[in-house]
Amino acid sequence: MVSFFRKIFGSNSEEAVPANLAALKADMHSHVLPGLDDGAETLEKSLGLVEALIGLGYTKLIMTPHIMGDFYKNTPEGIREKLTLLKQAVQEKGWNIQLDCAAEYYLDEWFVRRLEENEPLLTFGGEKKYLLFETSYINEPSFLKAVVFEMLSAGYKPVLAHPERYTYLYSKFDELKTLHEAGVLMQVNLNSLGGYYSDGAKRVAEKLIDAKMVHLVGTDTHSMKHIQFMQKAIASKYFGKLMQLPLINPQL
Fold it and tell me: What is the pLDDT of residues 77-108, one digit of tens each?
C-alpha cells in the first residue's frame, strides 16, 4: 500500500494521506466505466482508476456515467454491460472492492420527458432511490424547481451533483438553501476542497460544509489527474470538517 501511495502521490504520501479517508467507504460519483463518456476511455484505464481508488481506502465504487439527451446517449442497459465487463476484469485481478453503477443525469428536455413517462432511471442506494443529476454550469434551468418536484413526486431522492460548481449560484446561496429545504441532497466533489475547479467552487463548497448542507461526497474521478490532486484536497482543513458531517456515503 505504501508503495502505491508513493507511486501516485510522492515519497512522503503515506504521511499525507489520512487513514480516515477509508471512513467514507463508498464513492458514489465517478466516470470510471470504460468508453461511455469523458471519463475512462478503455478498460485498462478503468482498471488503473479502480486500483487508485482502492488505494485511497474505498471499498465500494458506484460509478455514474453521464446521460445527456444530445451528447452522451447512454442507456441503463449499456451502462450495466460495461459494469459487468469491469467487474469481470477486477475479479480476475483479485481485488477486494464492490462495484455498482448509477448515472449522472443532465437536466434537459430528454430527462424531463423520461421522468414524465415514468421510465426507470438508474439510481443508487437501493430502495432509497438516490437520483444523481446535474445542470448547466452557467445557465440556471428555468424548470429546475419544477423538475425537483417531479423527482420527489415519483419517489426519487434527488441528489444535486457538485452544487459548488454552478457559477449561476455563486451569488445565490439562498437558492441552494431553498433546494435543500425542498428535499434536494447536496453532493460535493472532494477535489473542490483543494481548489481544483476554481476558487469560487472552493468557497461555495466550504460554505455548504459550514451550513451543514452536504449529504454526500464524491470523487467525480474522470482520469488519474483527479486522483493525483486528492492529496491536496484531503489535506485541507475543510476535509476534516466534511468528515464530521453525517454523510450518507458509509451507508451505501
Answer: 999 999 999 999 999 999 999 999 999 999 99
Task: Please say whether the dihedral angle defined by the alpha carbons of residues 219, 100, 77 and 114, taken in this order, is positive or negative.
Answer: negative
How far is it, in rounded angstroms, from Cα 39 to Cα 33? 7
- Report residue 124 as a C-alpha cell: 443508487
- 126-151 confidence digits (pLDDT tens): 999 999 999 999 999 999 999 999 99
The Cα 48–Cα 73 span in angstroms is 25
Residues across the chain:
252
Q: How far apart, in Å, are the Cα atoms of 87 and each of 83, 100, 115, 234?
A: 6, 9, 29, 28
pTM of the model: 0.92
From residue 197, alpha-carbon distances to 26, 104, 137 in Å are 22, 18, 12
For 19, 144, 228, the CA distances from 190, given in Å and listed in that order, are 16, 24, 12
Which grid cell sits at 173?
446561496
- Which of 111, 112, 133, 139 shows the shortest CA–CA distance to 185? 133
Q: Show the beta-strand stretches assigned E in the chain.
A: 26-27, 60-63, 66-67, 98-101, 104-106, 130-134, 157-161, 185-189, 216-218
b/e sequence 141-168, b meaning 16+ C-beta within 10 Å: eeebeebbebbeeeebbbbbbbbbbbee
Query: Are 64 and 29 a contacting pair, CB within 8 Å?
Result: yes
Domains of the chain: 2-8+22-251 (3.20.20.140)
